[in-house]
Fold this protein.
Amino acid sequence: MKAREVVLVDGIRTAYGRAGEKGFFWHTRADDMVVKVIRELLRRNPQVTPDMVEENVWGATTQEGDQGLTLGRTSAILAGLSEKCAGASIDRMCASGMTAVTTAASEIALGAFDIAIAGGVEHMGHHPMGATADPNPRFLVDRLVSEDAIVMGKTAENLHDMFPEISKEMTDEYAMLSQHKTARAYKEGKITKMIVPMTVYTPEGWVVADRDQQPRPDTTLEGLRDLHTPFRPMGKVTPGNASGLNDGACGVLLMSADKAKELNLQPKMRLVAFTYAGVKAEVMGLGPIPATHKVFKISGLTMDDIDFIELNEAFAVQCIAFMQEFKLKWPDEPRLNPWGGAIALGHPLASSGPRLMIHLMHEFAANPKAKYGLATMCVGLGQGGSVIWENLQGDGKKTPKKKAATKKKKK
Ligand SMILES: CC(C)(COP(=O)(O)OP(=O)(O)OC[C@H]1O[C@@H](n2cnc3c(N)ncnc32)[C@H](O)[C@@H]1OP(=O)(O)O)[C@@H](O)C(=O)NCCC(=O)NCCS
């Protein structure tokens, strides 16, 4: 059976709140955030009626309470999709939403469905990271995995040990840049168009959550320098150079290229290739490196062919290790997270994979000459995910450098 082409037609997210009682989503259910995203995707694309969506796949790292009971099915019912719509839940920790998208895309590619919605949600206020997990003690004893592997911030400190040339000053500089890039993107109206406003009840009354709560646009190196290091005494990882604890949902509308054509929809991106790869759990932040090498091998592309890189900023140190591996320009590689990343925007775990993808979608729209984009992220317990998308909003004139080189050789 020949795989069918899969396209991303649209994507949207909620604002990202701060987790906990001060966050605007504290009194809002995670599944209602998912429903908001699904309804908005349908509102924005009226050619797709609710009964046309055949599959609804949602990722969440904690699958219980308001994120339990097979979120893909419950949210399909709540959102008013047809009762014939199938639904599934996915867990690959931080890459749960990314995996929801690649799973739904694979299903479409194999002809199981024509149209699917996929995304990720995490209400870290309702579900603090790992709070109800019960790791098998053999995990630590028999398999000799260090206890550090369970605390993501400790894995980031381990990366500092592994790469002593990545200094605390460098991670702070990276973090400040992320904050400033997001501040600029907000000013230019680039972020709010990715957000569906949601009216939510808070202790201050009803408010409209339409902007992220995490960004600190006034961040300075001085302000970052002396922040506490919660993961190791005298460590290097601080609340300033790490992603935060957040609530949010993000989803995309996927279909076969043929279906998009039939419905007269203009798809935004075509899925080129994706993969996942494992690394040592104690240094989980390295995950994007092997996953990206692998996705390049699968696609035949190289970093030179990539016009935009959306790298999830779980921790600055892990992003710098990625930059070094792929020889990206320090400190400001123009292709990398041009509108900032999770350090500024927030990282509601499972939601972040699709968020990287909708950044690519908008970056492509703003840069018609761009051809390929990479979305990549690290995953707790030692994995990385990488997905390559092709711009369908461009003029299609740019030839991938690698293919151009091959042609020359043949002559
Ligand atoms: C690092 C971490 C423990 C910090 O938690 P926290 O203490 O609740 O963080 P806060 O955002 O409240 O920041 C603490 C303080 O740091 C300071 N701070 C944070 N960012 C700052 C910045 N950019 N500039 C200046 N000060 C900053 C503030 O003073 C803040 O205090 P405030 O309440 O007065 O504003 C938490 O964010 C964390 O665990 N992050 C990692 C999440 C994770 O592992 N995700 C999965 C990745 S795989």
Notes: The two ends are 34 Å apart (CA to CA). The pocket of coenzyme A is lined by residues 94, 152-153, 179, 216, 219, 223-224, 227, 230, 239-240, 242-245, 314, 347, 378, 380 (CB under 6 Å). The longest strand covers residues 246-256. The mean pLDDT is 95.
